[in-house]
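ARCHIVE CARD
Drawer: 12
Card no.: 0347
Subject: one protein chain, sequence and derived structure
Cross-reference: see card 0346
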Amino acid sequence: MNNEWNQDKGAWLPKLTRRRFFKTVGAASALGAAGLNSLQAWADELPRVSEDSEMALALNYKHDAQTVDAAKRASDRYCYNCSLFAGAEDDAWAGCSIFPGKVVAGRGWCSAWSPKQ
C-alpha cells in the first residue's frame, strides 16, 4: 500500500488514487443495493398493522383508503404518497414511521398523512 504523510492531519493516510476511489465507490454501491433488497425482504416479514390496534384507531388507519369517509380524506391521499411511508409507490406493504415494527398498506391511509417532499 502506498502511504504518504498528511501534514495537516498529522497522520499516515493511504494515498487515494483514482483506481482505489472507484473500487471503494463500486463496493459501497453494491453493498447499498444489497442492503436495500434485504430491507424489502425484512419488510415482507413484518406483521401488518391491525386496524383494531389502539394506535390505528386513534389515527383512523384503514388498509383500504377508499373505505374512509370522504370528509376526512382527500381522494389523492394514500400511504404510498405519504412522507412517513418507507416503501416505493408501487409497494403493496411497507414500513411506516408511525407504526414501528409493522407494515402498512400502500393503498391505506391514516390521519397522520403528510405529503412527500
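Annotation on reverse: The radius of gyration is 22 Å. Residues 1-45 form one domain.
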